[in-house]
Recover the amino acids of this structure.
């Protein structure tokens, strides 16, 4: 696989399956980007034709999908414009595994670039970025119950309660408001910039705005912006810790170094900023189920940070080695850490599980193409 393609997909947060807007900036040379992508895709096609990989997919509907706490969905982005996004189901309790469960249960593909997934009231909401839609499934059997359309380039969904949710957007310069009772778009909020992950804290929605290098603070009661918080780096991922504090991972972009910022949601103030060296490109910030520890990927492996810490950890807890770690997740019982290896971004990803206590490797599984996230049943 071409080095340019790997660089774009791995190092630029935007390229979780797509191109056009990210660390290269709005004014970046699209001709150079797409020329590199065309060359890389040509190599990818040649590799696909002359190498073999496991493309076995279930052909019959699953009638006994084992739903239990700890079962996990692998959110497989697929290749941009190829329409091969998928979701895999794995239950570590009984070792059941189903590849491309959405296709199996609904007799149609999920779409183009699976970005994220959340659950609301027993239903799963799979955000399919380049298909401009959200697929809603019953989590008991993963059958489709609705498709939400009218979206520009959806990224993440934030449940607000009372049958409402926000959807962030890559290109739309807006947040979209969803009625989750009838799964329809009920309105939008103008919010210039590329918006990413969101959290709800102190009754307010905190929204990562990559372009502006700030966190937007929204009052869901009135759907109005009440303030914003300037942070270091270009914010993408956000989590809440055990103390209810908001952590933001600002990505490296050009000469702007990456940083972790801790925000007090009661007064929207920055309490701690942890700056990374300009040579490092951390990504995929998550918190454990209790919010006691944060985990993220960096150039040389998987890192762990206590939510009360005021300094960055000096070394990874799991070294990268020859792997290309792309996404991580933690089981609801806080016993297993999942990590995907996107390999060459063309064949199915490897997914590894590690014992949280000992950090020893437990199991190796297969995801879909570009496993970019994990959704856990709770």
């Amino acid at each position: 696989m071409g080095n340019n393609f790997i660089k774009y997909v791995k190092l630029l947060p935007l390229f979780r399956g797509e191109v056009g807007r990210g660390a290269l900036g709005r004014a970046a040379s699209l001709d150079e980007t797409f020329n590199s992508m065309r060359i890389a895709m040509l190599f990818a096609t040649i590799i696909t034709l002359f190498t073999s990989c496991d493309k076995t997919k279930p052909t019959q509907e699953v009638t006994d999908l084992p739903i239990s706490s700890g079962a996990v969905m692998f959110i497989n982005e697929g290749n941009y414009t190829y329409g091969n996004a998928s979701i895999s189901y794995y239950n570590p309790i009984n070792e059941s595994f189903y590849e491309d469960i959405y296709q199996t249960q609904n007799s149609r593909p999920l779409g183009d670039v699976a970005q994220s997934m959340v659950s609301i009231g027993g239903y799963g909401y799979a955000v399919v970025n380049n298909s401009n839609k959200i697929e809603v499934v019953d989590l008991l059997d993963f059958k489709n119950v609705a498709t939400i359309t009218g979206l520009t380039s959806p990224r993440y969904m934030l449940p607000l309660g009372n049958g409402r949710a926000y959807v962030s957007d890559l290109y739309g310069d807006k947040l979209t408001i969803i009625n989750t009772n009838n799964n329809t778009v009920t309105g939008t909020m103008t919010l210039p910039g590329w918006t990413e992950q969101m959290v709800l804290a102190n009754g307010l929605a905190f929204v990562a705005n990559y372009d502006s290098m700030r966190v937007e603070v929204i009052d869901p009661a009135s759907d109005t912006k009440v303030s914003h918080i300037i942070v270091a780096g270009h914010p993408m991922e956000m989590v809440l810790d055990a103390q209810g504090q908001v952590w933001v991972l600002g990505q490296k972009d050009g000469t702007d170094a990456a940083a972790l910022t801790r925000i007090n949601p009661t007064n929207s103030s920055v309490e701690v900023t942890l700056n990374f060296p300009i040579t490092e490109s951390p990504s995929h910030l998550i918190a454990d189920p209790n919010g006691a520890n944060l985990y993220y990927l960096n150039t040389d492996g998987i890192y762990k940070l206590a939510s009360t810490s005021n300094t960055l950890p000096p070394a990874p807890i799991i070294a990268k080695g020859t792997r290309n770690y792309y996404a991580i997740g933690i089981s609801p019982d806080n016993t297993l850490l999942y990590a995907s290896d996107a390999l060459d971004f063309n064949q199915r990803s490897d997914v590894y599980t590690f014992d949280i206590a000992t950090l020893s490797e437990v199991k190796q599984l297969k995801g879909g193409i570009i496993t970019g996230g994990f959704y856990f049943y709770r």
